[in-house]
Amino acid sequence: MWREIWFLVTRTLLTTFRKRRTLMLYFGLPIAGILASVLLYSSQGPTELRVGVVNEDAGEQIAADTVSFVKGLDHVTIVNVTPDELKDQLAASKLDSGLIIDSGFSESVLSGSPDHIAIESVKGAQVTAYMKSMLYGYIDNVTSMGKIAGGDAAKFKALYDQYRSADFKLTSESVNDTATTKDMSYQSIGFLLMFMLSSAVGLSELILKNRENRTYFRVLSSPINARTYVLANIVMNLIVMIVQIIVALLFMQVVFHLDPGIPMGEMLGLLALFALVSVSLSLVIVAFSKSSAMAGALQNLIVPPTCMLSGCFFPISIMPAEVRKISDFLPQNWVLQSINKLQSGESFGSIWFNLVMLFAFAVVFFLIATYKFGRNNDTRNFV
Amino acid sequence: MNVLDIRGLTKKFGDFVAVDNMSLTVREGEIFGFLGANGAGKSTTINVVSSLLRPSSGEIRILDKDIMKQSRFAKMNLGIVPQDLAIYEDMTAYENVSFFAGLYGLRGIKLKERTIEALDFVGLGDKAKSFPKNFSGGMKRRLNIACAIAHKPKLIIMDEPTVGIDPQSRNYILTSVRKLNESGCTIIYTSHYMEEVEEICSRIAIVDHGKIIAEGTKEQLKSTITDVKDIRIELKSVQGGVVEKLRSIPGVRNVSQEDHVIRIHSDAAVDNLNRMLKQLIDAGMEIRSVEEQEPNLETVFLTLTGRNLRD
After folding, report:
1. pLDDT score recorded for residue B143
2. Where are the domains of chain B?
3. CATH assignment of B226-294?
4. Which domains does chain A have, with CATH numbers?
5. Exposure on the CB side of residue B284, measured as CA atoms within 13 A
6. Chain B within 8 Å of A217 (Cβ-Cβ)?
7. Contact A15 B159 (CB under 8 A)
8. Closest Cα in chain B to A226
9. How would residue A261 be classed by pLDDT, with cut points 50, 70 and 90?
10. Under an 8 Å CB criterion, which residues of B touch A?
11. Of 1.10.3720.10, 2.40.160.40, 3.30.56.10, 3.40.50.300, which CATH number belongs to B2-222?
C-alpha cells in the first residue's frame, strides 16, 4: 500500500508544483506574510522626539540647565523657538511637543515651589510622558536643594555646584530589547497559520477536482482503493505543510533576522502538529463539499474569520473578553498561546496541555471527515 | 472461457431498482455490444463490474474470480474507457498514460515501454509531450483509451468511446477496437450508434429497466423480429403534422422523420402501406421513393423496448 501511496504522492507533487504560480501560492505567500509583519512592526522602534523650547527665563542658570538637561535626554532633539513658532510647528506636526519656561521659573524652583513651566503637545501623553517623567525628576532634585538652602543663594549655589559636578561611578550593561522581534515573529507565525490552513484546503480540494474531472473514479477502478487515495492526499499535504513551515522559518531567521525566542526544533514540532490539524480540517471541508467551488467558499467562510478571532492578524489582547472566549475553541489560538508561553521562557514540556488540545482537534476533525467520506457514494459522473 | 460472468446481479438505490436480477456472460475474445437507452441500467452495471459500486445482491466473476473476494485481481485485468473523459488536463499525454498505468504497479522501463506502446496504439505517439487542452475532441478520446489499455487488461469496457467526434477519429477508434480484440482483449462496447455496434460486435445484449431483454448475435436478434416491417419513404418535402397523421393509421407502431425521409415501424400483419401513401398524397406531398427494409438492430431495439436508443 505504501508503494502505491508514494507513487500517488510523487506524481501529484510533481504535477502540482511544476507551475510557478503554485510555488508562489504555497511558499511565496507565507514569506510575504513575514514581510508584512516586519513592515508592520518596524514602525515600533525607537523614534526621535522633537521638542520646541521657549525659554523666557533666559539668563537664569537653572532655566539654562533645565534646557540642557532636556537636550541631553536620549532620543530628544530640541529646537529653540518663539511662542508663535511653537504653536505653528506643533499644529503642523513639525514638533512633537513644546517646553515653555516662563519668566520666574528659576526663582520658583529656588523657593521650593516650582512653577512657570509647561509642556504642550497635540499628540498627547504618548509623546509627553517620557519627557515629563525625566524632567520632573530633575526639577524635584533642584527644588529639594532650594528647600534645603532655605532661600540662602550661596548655600544653594554650593549644593547645586556639588550636584552638577557629582562624580558617580556608573556601570552600565546593555541588553537587547527582543520584545519587537518577538512580536514580529509571533505575528509572522499568525500569518503562516492562515496560509497553512489555506494551502491544506487547496491540496485536499484536489480530491474534489479529480471527482469533477472524473479521474478520481478512474483511479478507483484501478487497484487503488479510496482509503489509499485519501491517505496519499494526506501524506502529500503534510509534506507540503512541513516544507512550507521550514521555508517560512528559514526566511524568518536567515533573511529577516527575526529571532522568535523559541528553539527552532520546538517551533517546528509545534507547527508540524498544527499541520496535522490543518490537513484534518481541510478534509472536513472537502468531505462536506460537493464541488471545489463549494470547498473554496467554505474555506473563505472558515479560515480567515477563525484566524482573525484567534489573533493571527493582530494581538488577541485588543479583542473583547467574549471574543477571546470563542478563540478557546479554535486551534490557531492554541498554537499562538503556546508560542506566547514559549517566548515567555516556559519549557516545551510545560505546554503539554496545548499540544494535547491540538492533537485532539486533529483527531476530531479526522473522525468527522472519515464519517462523512464513508457516506459519500457518488459515482454518477464516471460511466 | 468466460471473461465476465454476472449472476443474479441486483443494484438498488433506496427503493429504485437500477439493475434487476441481471445475468450475463461475456466469453473470451468477444466484442460484446451492451445496448440500452438512458436509464436502462447499463452504466450502473458497468460501475458495479468496475468495483465503483457495491452490488445489492448477486455475483460477478472476472476470469473466474469473484470481484468482491479478489478485487485486486479483477481490477488488474480490467480496463475502463469511460464515456466522459477522465484525463488530467495539466499532465502531458505521456504523463497521463504513465500515471494511470503506474496505478497497476508498472514501474521503470516497463512503465515507459507500455506508455509509449499505448500512445502509439491510439496514434498519439508524436503528441506524447503535448497537453490534452491542446487536443481535438477525437485526440482526447484516443488518449482516454490509451489510459485504459497501457496495463494490458484482459477485459476492456468501452462506454460510448466515439461520442461527439469527427468521422476520421471515429474510424481510427473502431479500427483500434478491432486491433485490441485481435491482440486477445475481450471488449464490452456500448454505443448509441447502432451501425457501430452492428459493424464490430460479435454478440449483443439489450438491457431495459435493469434487465437483459435480448441477447445473441445480430443475426439471432434480427431473426426474432418477424412481426414488424420497416418502411422508408423519401419525399420531396415534408409538411408539418404528417408524422402524427401517419401514427394514427392502424398497425403503425412508430414514425420518425429525418430531413425528407420518413421511417415507419409497423405491424407486419396489417396491410396498411396504401393508406400511408394515400395520407401523404392527400396532404399534397410528392413521393420520391418507397422501400420496405430488412429489420436492423434499431428496429430490434425499438420493437423490444418501445423506445429509440437515443431516448
Report:
1. 93
2. 2-222, 226-294
3. 3.30.70.100
4. 2-42+179-381 (no CATH), 49-164 (3.40.1710.10)
5. 3
6. yes
7. no
8. B52
9. confident
10. 43, 46-47, 50-53, 71-72, 75-76, 78, 80, 82-91, 95, 99-100, 102-105, 147, 157, 159
11. 3.40.50.300
Residues on chain A touching B105 (C-beta within 8 angstroms): 223
Q: Min CA distance, A11 vs chain B (Å)?
A: 7
Q: Give chain A positions within 8 Å (CB) of B89.
A: 213
CB atoms inside a 10 Å sphere around CB A158? 13
Is there a contact between B87 and A224 if contact means CB atoms under 8 Å apart? no
Task: Say if residue A183's pLDDT is above 90.
Answer: no
Cβ(A60)–Cβ(A51) under 8 Å? no
**Cross-chain residue pair B52–A221, CB shorter than 8 Å:** yes
Q: How many CB pairs under 8 A join A and B?
A: 74
Residues A196, A332: contact at Cβ < 8 Å? no
Q: How far apart are CA B35 and CA B26, in angstroms?
A: 14
Question: Quick one: cell of A36?
Answer: 508584512
Residue corresponding to grid cell 532636556: A70
Cβ <8 Å between A15 and B88? yes
Cβ within 8 Å, pair A221-B99: no
Mean pLDDT per 10-residue segment, chain B (311 residues): 91 90 92 86 89 90 91 92 89 94 92 94 91 89 92 91 84 89 92 85 89 87 78 85 86 84 83 86 87 78 70 57
Q: ipTM, 2 decimals?
A: 0.79
Q: Cell numbers 513651566 label which residue?
A: A117
Cell of B121: 496504439
**Position B154: which residue type?**
K
As a whole number of angstroms, the distance between CA A90 and CA A92 comes to: 5
